[in-house]
Amino acid sequence: MYDKLIFEISKPGRVGCSLPKSEVKDWNLPEELTRKIALDMPEVTELDVVRHFTRLSQKNYGVDQGFYPLGSCTMKYNPKINDEMAGNPNFVGLHPLQPAETAQGALEIYYQTSKMLSELTGLAEFSFNPFAGAHGEATGLMIMKEYHLQRHDYKRNKVIIPDSAHGTNPASASVCGMETIVVPSTELGTVDIAKLKEVLNDEVAGMMLTNPNTVGIFEKDILEISKLMHANGSLMYYDGANLNALLGVSRPGDMGFDIMHINLHKTFSTPHGGGGPGSGPVGVTKNLVQLLPNPRVVLENNQYRLQTNPLSIGSVSGFYGNFLVVVRAYTYLRSLGKENVGLVGKMAVLNANYIKESLKDYYKLPIKGACKHEVVFDGLVKGDASTLDVAKRLMDYGYHPPTIYFPMLFHQSLMIEPTEMESKETLDDFIDAMIKIAKEAEENPELLHNAPHTTIIRRLDDVKAARTPIVKFKDIT
Ligand SMILES: Cc1ncc(COP(=O)(O)O)c(C=O)c1O
Fold this sequence. Notes:
The protein is of the alpha/beta class. It folds into 3 domains: 1-17 and 30-59, no CATH class; 94-336, Type I PLP-dependent aspartate aminotransferase-like (Major domain) (Aspartate Aminotransferase, domain 2), CATH 3.40.640.10; 344-467, Aspartate Aminotransferase, domain 1, CATH 3.90.1150.10. 35% of the residues lie in helices and 11% in strands. It has a 7-stranded mixed beta sheet, with helices on both faces. The protein has a 3-stranded antiparallel beta sheet with strand order 10-12-11, with helices on one face. The chain binds pyridoxal-5'-phosphate.
């Protein structure tokens, strides 16, 4: 049984509210603009509408509902105070074209958030213009490219990217017209320095790296890597998607990175866009500040203003990015305070290691030793079930599954990122479910092969859904 559409519960004459008679006089519209067929709107009561949309909202799974350990995504809770601040009518009502003198509060938020991010990352200044992490990557690479061009070093058009990197890294390089050189990882999951040295030459513009990397392991040779790249005349780009693990503990700037992006929707507790507004601010070292996208927010004589730089890579978004997302990140940082921000990385790492140690007898651990903010398993130790089966069965236990089959370094990757927000009780319940599933895989593997059993839609054909999506309503009863 499918839930009825709002049009299907419509009954002629039902209304949700009654409007007063219009005070606007009749307006003679030109004939070609007048409606010829009556508008087909659903006729429903307020209660119909409330129930319909409440029911729909419950079909989704969100962080506000339960544990969401999606690796590489940092699905942390977004405190409601962030939304309350972003909903302030003085922020919501701003127009991007209004004079800077009348928007000093908003410009101050941009300026101060950049200052806080600088303190946390060791880079000089941030631009909030990019709309997402991947957009930040592309912006950062444009800065890298422009740096070499402005030095008349025209040959440098190659970017080194480890094989463990997120797919957006090579995609961003390609979008910027740059070529990718892939370096393999060692069996410890970190960059193979010997192989890195082999690909260095005067065509290399820079290297993109996330640290901890997508296997959840800290690149312990990062200082040596940065030194090698800089000696080669190349720049270091930090993919900040995994910054949560380091927050308040160590800084990309101190590791030798020149350019980075941050996913505000991950580390700084703003909503994951889901196609909606996101924010991927880009930060740079002092010598690259003039290349940041236009415009920059500057403070002069106690007044904030927008400055356009002739050396800049130009504009990468309409106006100045998604302002209300920045308000949320600002609120998050101010409510944590300097004294607590250092706990974020530490607690995120502790939680991931707690899960790793609790599950390592049941799920294969391809890389031993301490992980950072996320742990990657490579399928079950025993039993006849795949990582996909485990993920589907977890839904029956009421959890959003972890990331599966990424990173691609292992055949049965199962990547769990608990974030710092979760309590020991939540982690224990999840661990319990994972152990039960591991036992089911040995005793009754069919239960896993056919999971999920409790969801409205059972197992989807993922490939078919991606290749031939049906995006319109279709009665499947
Ligand atoms: C390591 C890494 N880099 C980059 C990105 C891209 O970020 P966004 O989804 O905001 O574009 C992600 C997203 O999950 C990621 O995990």
